[in-house]
Amino acid sequence: MEKTRRENVTEMILEPIAELHPGDYEIKAEGMDQIKEVDLLKTALILEERERRFFTEVSDKVPLPEVGRIFRKVAQKKERSLAKLKTLSLNQFLLGESQN
């Protein structure tokens, strides 16, 4: 992102993005220090999905095309990370089932 900002975005006026509601993406950190190991993967899936959704939605709303393109790339990376986490989650579930 920084590289594109330096090379392509000559001026950026910091204005709120229309129809973007920060509450839709907030993460409540209360109790995170007490999270059980078993719930870590589930939490990672939730957080990664929230980030993917944020970058996808913001890429359509940001007024600068270059920035929108960067956000779409980040969203694609988040999608790949989600796929890996889902595979890990499935494997963990299958291992848990085979031990029962």
Mean pLDDT across residues = 78
Number of strands: 0
Contiguous low-pLDDT stretches (5 residues minimum) are none
Major beta sheet summary: none
Order of helices and strands: HHH
Shape: elongated
Q: Roughly how many Å apart are the termini? A: 47 Å
Report strand %: under 5%
Can you count the helices?
3
Radius of gyration: 18 Å
Which class of secondary structure composition applies to the elements? mainly alpha
Q: What fraction, in percent, of the residue positions are helical?
A: 55-70%
Write up this protein.
With 100 residues, the protein is an all-alpha fold. It has a domain at 35-95. Helix content is 67%, strand content 0%. The protein is built from three helices and no strands. The radius of gyration is 18 Å and the shape is elongated. The chain starts with a helix and ends with a helix.
In terms of topology, how is this protein built?
Blueprint: H1 2-8, H2 37-61, H3 65-99
Describe the structure in brief.
This protein has 100 residues and is mainly α.
